[in-house]
Amino acid sequence: MGSFRFRSAAEPSHPRARDDRWTNSWTNWAGNVTSRPRATETPPDPMALTRIVDRAVASGDTIRVVGAGHSFTPAAATNGVQVSLDRLDELEIIAPIPGTDGECLVTVGAGIRLHALNELLAEHGLAMPNLGDIDQQSLAGALSTGTHGTGAALPGLAAQVHGMRILLASGSVIEVSQDQHPEVFQAARVSVGALGILLAVTIRCVPAFLLRARETTMQFDEVMEGLDEFADTNDHFEFFWFPGTQGTLTKFNNRVPEGTPTTVDSLNTAAAAAYSARSWLDDELLSNGLFQFTNSLSARVPQLTGPLNVVASKALSPREYVAPSHEVFVSPRRVRFIEMEYAVPRAALSDVLQELTTVANRRDLAIQFPVEVRFAAADDVWLSTAHERDSAYIAVHQYQHSPYREYFDAAEAIFRAAGGRPHWGKMHSLTRTELTDLYPRFEAFCTIREKLDPRGLFANFYTNQVFGKLT
Ligand SMILES: Cc1cc2nc3c(=O)[nH]c(=O)nc-3n(C[C@H](O)[C@H](O)[C@H](O)COP(=O)(O)OP(=O)(O)OC[C@H]3O[C@@H](n4cnc5c(N)ncnc54)[C@H](O)[C@@H]3O)c2cc1C
């Protein structure tokens, strides 16, 4: 297998900055992973995909499915055949779950993007119970790396999966669920694309709901004191802390009980216009425009990072609004960054954060991006970062064009000392040896992989790192 190219912050990392030798190359969203697929395919249907798999098997090639390329790790990168399932994104069936209050099992093509899925669900009066903070990913990509949102009582996306249809290296297609191939099902819900190609996914959805969002700035010490209370008494609590300052932005999102008269439609026109103007001011101008400006400035003049962080931490105005859940969960993220995120046992969060401040506050590191803290309930998915333990997620970021290695290495040492598990789609340095100790079912996963894909048809540089090389 060919090699992947990782850029250091000193190299040009914007795709347009590439020289001619890389014009046919693929680059992820963050611009830190580049590969050169031998061929790219976007099959219109599963039959065409099967033929692509057959050809790759015959020629001894490797295959990697790419979703939206939003992983910071080379999870989707390949120098073999790169396949996009953008055209396998159709709704197959919506089946009400008997005995529930309107919950449904929804089967969709695995390539569907989350924003399209959210719209489709809304059209049918449904929603995902929880989501991450963007909606650009493909459903399969988000599941495969263990994507999660925040909510101490709510698990990540993979725990909402009821069944999957998978195209295997053998060319056969299997349906997996708790009842059909249950072990493969447990392994496939988070599999980093290493077991086969997900063709369709059945997810458990809930009736559409509104969220009341309250966003406000708070002092870091105040947040630390209220950490457990905030996480336990709100459906979805998260916060962003700006290194080198006491400033945080906290987000408290709570379900609006059904029947509450407050609805989006009930906002009068003037209030709706004011909301939309404020939303634009906060989401676009402050979160993206101003943030882009402060980041590029401090990338050029690192000494300005501290004062600029103070500005950034105070720029957002407190706001409260009610909107459909998927609109509240998701924000535009136009300023590109590099990210590492670890799930630590929830009980360790406070100590880990205190320790992290000693690193993130270091002036020489000039950290421009806030640290993000979220929560998730334990689940039973084998490679879920919240497998069998209530978890808190701590994410460190750095602006795309700034050095991040020293910061991430120091942060990773702190996360690892607390038994942290790295997000499969975000920067980390762990290999199979260390990961085996972090997941009770890790070796069981690797055994299933060896059985389903003995030759490594779906292997790449990253699966070799995390699961080991197949011979
Ligand atoms: C701005 C931004 C915000 C983010 N926010 C969050 C967040 O809130 N929470 C969170 O947990 N993560 C978050 N992430 C990480 C992101 O959700 C994951 O990296 C996710 O995998 C990206 O989905 P994708 O469609 O881009 O997948 P890709 O990165 O393209 O692929 C990811 C993996 O999925 C595999 N894959 C894709 N499709 C298939 C398929 N059909 N069958 C088998 N394997 C497949 C690929 O081979 C690869 O291994 C964020 C990332 C960015 C850049």
TrEMBL record:
PROSITE patterns per the UniProt record, alphabetical: FAD_PCMH
FAD-binding PCMH-type domain: residues covered: 33-208
Keywords assigned: Oxidoreductase
Record InterPro entries: ALO_C, FAD-bd_PCMH, FAD-bd_PCMH-like_sf, FAD-bd_PCMH_sub1, FAD-bd_PCMH_sub2, FAD_lactone_oxidase-like, Oxid_FAD_bind_N, Vanillyl_alc_oxidase_C-sub2
One Pfam family per UniProt: ALO
Record-linked PANTHER family: D-ARABINONO-1,4-LACTONE OXIDASE, L-GULONOLACTONE OXIDASE
Name of the protein this chain belongs to: D-arabinono-1,4-lactone oxidase
Protein's organism: Populibacterium corticicola
